[in-house]
Amino acid sequence: EEQERLLQGKPDQPQNPKVLRIAIIGAPNAGKSTLSNQLLGRKVFAVSKKVHTTRCKAQGVATYEDTQLIILDTPGLTSPFKAKRHRLDEAMLMDPWDSMELADLVLVLVDVSDHWTRNSLSREVLQCLSQFPQIPSVLVLNKVDLLKKKFILLELVTELTEGIVNGKKLQVRSVFNHNSSSSAKSLQEISQASPPENRAPGSRCLQETASAPEGSHLDINCDVRAFESGVVTEEPQELKCCEPSDTKNRKGWPGFREIFMLAAVHGEEVDTLKQYLLTQAKPGPWEFHSGVLTSQSPQEIGNNIIREKILEYLPLEVPYGVTQVTEMWEEGPCGELLIVQNLVVPRKSHMAMLIGRGGSVISRIAQEAGQDLMNVFLCEVRLKLKVEMKS
């Protein structure tokens, strides 16, 4: 009731409000929901190692003094074929595009630990960017803590930006670091002439010095020296609008304004990104009351967190066939939240896997989901899960 009242009521506008709507897009499982939770400072969006944990666009709201950041956490951009394979709603194909239409700035998240996909942006991401070239975009390289050879980040930056950042060419030169623990004899150092006055205070992007903390640059484990600002004579280049058909042979996008490197799951350098986002906010009325953390209803949050645990503990494609039916959602006599939910599965074998030997799997799912829900709602939660076959 309190959440509904805050969502329907008028926002408590400050004297000079500022707002920024941020769309976070990327391939499935790039870490979009994890980053969203870190920016919000609390777990609101479901997170799982499996793809397509997020099933619909949801808004998170982070309010700092007179500035409101509205985070549009979207499903991973995917193809119709993959959507059918994972039994995804048709809305999941459209939600990321709808979020782009609402956004003032877009964060493109790339999982650098995935060597199969990290060297190029997906066709769906490139189509999204080419459809909305007027929206400022920022490249965020995520999971850098999982990358043993940090100099690979240099190659990724060049490929994913097509050698252009903020309208200027990146300068690439070979260097040899005698003190490097890396076995590579010839590394690359990239520098970029981006005017310092255009950057956020404390923003650690491509002009970092070697004193920056881990996660923000390439001076990690002494693999290579950090990015340094250089002098590049090339004039800023105007980004030409790319037709969707042009994305077939593309690997990167030359329209990124900034590049950030972080480890969202540990919160490394998330504050740096947050400070940058706050500087990009423009004068405008708030859309939400300062007490709102998400546009989702409590029931939607509950369903998403329970599904997160189901995805975590069931193998392969099995969890995508589970249907959740809430039987009870009410407040108990002592203020506790009572939830009873039926998990409907299509096959007997799926039921056996979900229940587990002696009920071990379903008990673990209920225990972990209940704990997460207590952390979200800040009250005691009694969660009961039942498994049944689809009739």
From TrEMBL:
G4 as annotated region, ranges: 142-145
Spans annotated as G5: 262-264
Subcellular location: Mitochondrion inner membrane; Mitochondrion matrix
Main location: mitochondrion
Positions of transmembrane segments: none
Keyword Membrane: yes
Lipid bilayer topology: Peripheral membrane protein
Keywords: GTP-binding, Membrane, Mitochondrion, Mitochondrion inner membrane, Nucleotide-binding, Ribosome biogenesis, RNA-binding, rRNA-binding, Transit peptide
Domain of life of the source: Eukaryota
InterPro entries named in the record: G_ERA_dom (IPR030388), GTP-bd (IPR006073), GTPase_Era-like (IPR005662), KH_dom-like_a/b (IPR015946), KH_dom_type_2 (IPR004044), P-loop_NTPase (IPR027417), Small_GTP-bd (IPR005225)
PANTHER family listed in its UniProt record: GTPASE ERA (PTHR42698), GTPASE ERA, MITOCHONDRIAL (PTHR42698:SF1)
Record-given protein name: GTPase Era, mitochondrial
Species, as recorded: Atlantisia rogersi (Inaccessible Island rail)
The encoding gene: Eral1
